[in-house]
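Lab notebook, bench 4. The sequencing result for the construct came back, and we need a structural model before the next group meeting so we can plan mutations. Quick request posted to the team channel:

Model the 3D structure of this chain.
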Amino acid sequence: MAQIAAAKGKAAPPPPPARIVTGAQFLTVFQVVFGVYALQFLLIPAKVVSDHFNATADQMTQFMTRGASASIAGVVWATRMLPEASAVKLATYVTLAVAVLYPYGAKFNLFKNNLSCKYPMHYVPEVLMAVLSLAGLYVMYL
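Done. Here's the predicted structure in token form:
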């Protein structure tokens, strides 16, 4: 009887609630999405511009876009090397920054560039960055 009472006092804590998205899953999606962006920025910079804007990319724009591919690829690599908790934070903060600087910056004219977004194609990064941002915040805080 004493053993049963002692065992009841040491009951295992309840399991944590099931997660909709795990840190590993979020990181995998982040790495694929941003890896594809890095490749597009490197290999087809003019197409990235012409797909999302009613404009063509001049040589300077293509040069700057290609250069940005190295930073994007570096962040993808870093999220593969860091411990999961740190990688999730980095990926979430980068996604939020990219969302503001790229698709939402253009959509809402945040930087007074008066860019003419090409819809429906420009919805792709808008939705993608919103979903990734929310998933990262979910993994970090819930």
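The first helix runs from residue 2 to 9.
Will bring this to the meeting.
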